[in-house]
Amino acid sequence: MKHKKILVGTNKGLVVFEKKINQWKIEKVHFLGLPVSTIYNNEITGTWWAGIAHRHWGQKLHFSNDEGKTWEMVAPPIYPKGTEVFEGQKATLKKIWCISHAGKDNPNGLWIGTEPGGLFYSDDNGKNLKLVEGLWNHPSRKDKNQWFGAGRDFPFIHSLVVDPRDSQHVYIAVSCAGVFETKDGGTTWIPRNNGLRATYLPNPNVEVGHDPHLLLACASHPDVLWQQNHCGIFRSVNGGMNWLDVTDNNGIADYGFALAIDHDNPQRAWVIPAVSDEVRIAHDLSLTVCRTEDGGVNWESLKNGLPQDFCFDIVFRHSLAIYKNELVFGTTTGNLFFSENYGDDWICLSSNLARVEGVTFV
Question: Across the chain, what does the average pLDDT equal?
Fold first, then answer.
């Protein structure tokens, strides 16, 4: 059965689209006027999560167990007193970047990735969140040359991947630091960046210091990992032990933020490229989605239904989502596009939204 709702987090509220009689329409707007920085639908519990980045009050965290009919607020992650990002720099929450369940065998577990680079865990559905000391105390994190901000003042954890075969096995991605893996539920962490390159550093082959923009794993083949990266597109078929550069050297599938992968077909993925970090605009001012069917060996450009003239849209890292044959993405100029045939054709669901920070199917 197809999904019936799409959650769209914008910097002016959480917009819920519902499909009725084969048409997508706005059902409701939650947190009207407020910047919704994070959205997450917990497919295990059905809980909706929303992080609100109040300009005055700071980061807040809300959840709903009834699809938005009612919302409750829990305390956001709090760094323990005396915790320092770096020596002399007090650690305080700047932003919640990502949220993830902790596995089907642990329905009360919740992971939360934050800026300035702290990972938090809760065993009671977010009521009590504790800093994961094993990662925070990793020797590399204390080094400003290994963990540092990417366009922001501090490093931030934006991706969480829980292995469906083993809930103790988790990956995170940090901008800037790279991919880290734990096999013991967060006690110990190992960098997994072999094969990546950091062209902005004196040594592009450093162990830690990379800038993944988004990390995903194929649900049916969990050892197949993909990442959209500041320095290209990379894929691993052995759980991150080694990464292969699958950037399109003859096309535009390269720099960008958004990434989606087919969870049944480990060879298929989509990216929405942009022109460099200096300007961050669509290539040739033409909005394009790129798709590979062979693990990144070849890429094709999908443009049907997308604006091609003087289009300044780009797509943030959490603003592209997939469910089977359906894809949806939102842009920085408030456009929302939908495809029900793997991206071959697109329709615009709305061109009147505020800047889109994230999308997800429900």
Answer: 96
pLDDT digits (tens, 9 = 90+) for 159-175: 999 999 999 999 999 99
The rounded distance, in Å, linking the Cα atoms of 320 and 353 is: 15
Q: What is the DSSP string of 75-101?
A: PPP-PPTT-EEETTEE----EEEEEEE
Residue 269 buriedness (CB in 10 A; 0-12 / 13-18 / 19+) = buried
Q: How far is CA 256 from CA 4, 71, 227, in A?
A: 28, 34, 11
Largest CA distance in the chain: 58
- Sequence-separated (6 or more) residues with CB below 8 Å from residue 125: 45, 47, 63, 108, 110
Mean pLDDT of the region 279-290: 93
Residue of 193, 197, 339, 353 whose CA lies nearest to 272? 339
List strand residue ranges (DSSP E) for 176-266, in order. 178-182, 190-191, 212-217, 225-229, 232-236, 244-245, 256-261
- Render pLDDT for 123-171 as a digit per residue (tens, 0 to 9): 999 999 999 999 999 999 999 999 999 889 999 999 999 999 999 999 9
What pairing do the DSSP bridges indicate for beta strands 190-191 and 178-182? Answer: antiparallel
Q: 3-state DSSP call for residue 142?
A: helix
- The tally of CA atoms less than 13 A away on the side-chain side of residue 280 is 13
What is the spatial distance between Cα 221 and Cα 228, in angstroms, rounded to a whole number? 18
Q: What is the DSSP string of 152-198?
A: SSS-EEEEEEE-TT-TT-EEEEEETBEEEEESSTTSS-EE--TT---
Report all structural domains of the chain as residue ranges with CATH numbers, in order of start: 78-209 (2.130.10.10)
Dist CA 169 CA 308 (whole Å):
43
CB count in 10 Å sphere of residue 246: 21
CA atoms of 108 and 148, how far apart (whole Å): 32
Interatomic CA distance for residues 340 and 176, integer angstroms = 34
Residue 7, both tokens: 């959650």
Mean pLDDT, rounded, for 226-249:
97
Distance CA 306, CA 241 (A): 37
Answer whether 0.90 is exceeded by the pTM: yes
Please tell me the distance from the alpha carbon of residue 288 to that of residue 305, in angstroms, as a whole number.
10
Distance CA 246, CA 197 (A): 12
